[in-house]
């Protein structure tokens, strides 16, 4: 590299004096014994004003002095060196200069000295401040975005909850109000039968009674669904009952309602238990309707009542294609129906949901087993009180 004609000769002393970094040699107590011209120029002092007149820590800011006492000196004694420590040094005129400092501890003759190299870090300091400001701005923007998204999600959830609650309340109101016109239809059909109808007209009134019965069961399911979803739980009226008698009577009524299908009732164990008999009849009706919708027509649907010391169980079994594993996970959710049930017009998908709620109200559990070749069995277990 070419040198300027006026530059001093490139001897070692000149190189050290005018090196692009500050160079100091201090005693262990910080007294400066040597300082190159670069360092003196940076701080506005002459070498004569610093050497043997000042200590390094006297040129540091207040925070730097504390660091020098608590970290700098102990670390040099323990490690023998320090690398890239950034401290503020005070210029003669009072302003501070950020500097990165490296130091080593060496033995000169019989005395220990600290050799220090210093680099002005003003540009680096500015870069770090800009980086910190940009990071804070980014974090603030991210926080505002997160809060905005959370508020949007909260508003959407609140709106969805309001819509769902309104829909459930409307469903309950409409279902309740439908009972009155249905009662009028049933009463009118009964009066027509008593007036002496022709056989073909009696078939019409029979269909009316059957349709009204289906509508009343649907209304009952809708009302129970509304009650359950609003968090009130199904109301129970528990009393000692003869389980086999209750289940048997329900199976007989269902057999009369489905004359083309074969229903069987199996009894296991003693018959006494405590439960809500009407809710059990409702549970059996829903499970049997489900079995008839999905089971094969030429095989019977088997309803089993079993009483043990620790509780009792009601199960309904039908033959037919197994329920897919992925479908089983959502069987007891409301408004879930299979394609076959939809095609046959079996309800709106509340039957198994109501079954689950009835069992829950009794502190019991309900499960399903469905395998190829062995059919499908729903089991409702009710623990003894």
What does this protein structure show overall?
It is a single chain. Residues about 340-345 have low confidence and may be disordered. The protein is an alpha+beta fold. The longest helix has about 70 residues, at about 120-195. The strands form 3 sheets. It has a 5-stranded antiparallel beta sheet, sandwiched between helices. The protein has helices spanning about 10-15, 35-45, 45-50, 60-80, 120-195, 200-230, 245-255, 275-295, 325-330, 340-345, 350-360; strands at about 20-25, 30-35, 80-90, 95-110, 110-120, 240, 265-270, 270-275, 300-310, 310-320, 365-370, 375-385. The protein folds into 3 domains: about 10-120, Beta-Lactamase (2-Layer Sandwich); about 125-230, Orthogonal Bundle (Helix Hairpins), CATH 1.10.287; about 240-385, Heat Shock Protein 90. It is about 50% helix and about 25% strand. It is rod-shaped. It contains 11 helices and 12 strands.
């Amino acid at each position: 590299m070419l040198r300027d004609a006026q530059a001093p000769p490139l001897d070692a002393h000149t190189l050290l004096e005018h090196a692009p970094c500050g160079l100091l040699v201090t005693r262990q107590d910080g007294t400066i014994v040597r300082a190159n011209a670069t360092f003196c120029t940076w701080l506005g002092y002459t070498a004569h004003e610093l050497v043997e007149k000042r200590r390094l820590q006297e040129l540091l800011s207040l925070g730097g002095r504390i660091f020098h006492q608590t970290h700098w000196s102990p670390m040099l004694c323990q490690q023998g060196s320090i690398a890239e420590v950034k401290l503020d040094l005070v210029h003669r005129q009072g302003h501070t200069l950020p500097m990165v400092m490296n130091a080593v501890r060496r033995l000169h003759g019989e005395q220990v000295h600290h050799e220090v190299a210093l680099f002005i870090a003003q540009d680096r300091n500015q870069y770090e401040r800009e980086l910190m400001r940009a990071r804070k701005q980014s974090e603030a923007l991210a926080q505002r975005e997160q809060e905005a998204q959370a508020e949007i999600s909260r508003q959407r959830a609140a709106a969805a909850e309001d819509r769902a609650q309104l829909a459930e309340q409307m469903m309950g109101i409409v279902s309740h109000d439908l009972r009155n016109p249905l009662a009028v239809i049933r009463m009118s059909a009964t009066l027509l039968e008593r007036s002496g109808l022709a056989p073909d007209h009696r078939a019409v009134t029979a269909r009316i009674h059957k349709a009204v019965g289906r509508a009343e069961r649907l209304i009952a399911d809708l009302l129970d669904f509304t009650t359950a979803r609003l968090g009130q739980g199904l109301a129970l009226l528990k009393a000692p009952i003869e389980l086999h008698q209750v289940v048997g009577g329900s199976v007989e009524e269902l057999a009369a309602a489905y004359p083309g299908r074969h229903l069987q009732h199996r009894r296991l164990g003693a018959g006494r238990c405590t439960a809500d008999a009407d809710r059990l009849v409702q549970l059996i009706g829903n499970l049997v309707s489900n079995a008839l919708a999905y089971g094969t027509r030429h095989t019977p649907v088997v309803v089993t009542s079993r009483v043990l010391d620790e509780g009792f169980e009601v199960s309904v079994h039908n033959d037919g294609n197994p329920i897919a594993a992925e479908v089983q996970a959502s069987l007891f959710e409301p408004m879930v129906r299979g394609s076959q049930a939809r095609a046959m017009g079996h309800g709106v998908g509340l039957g198994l949901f109501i079954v689950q709620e009835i069992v829950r109200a009794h502190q019991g559990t309900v499960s399903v087993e469905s395998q190829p070749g062995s059919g499908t069995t729903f089991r409702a277990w009710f623990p003894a009180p």
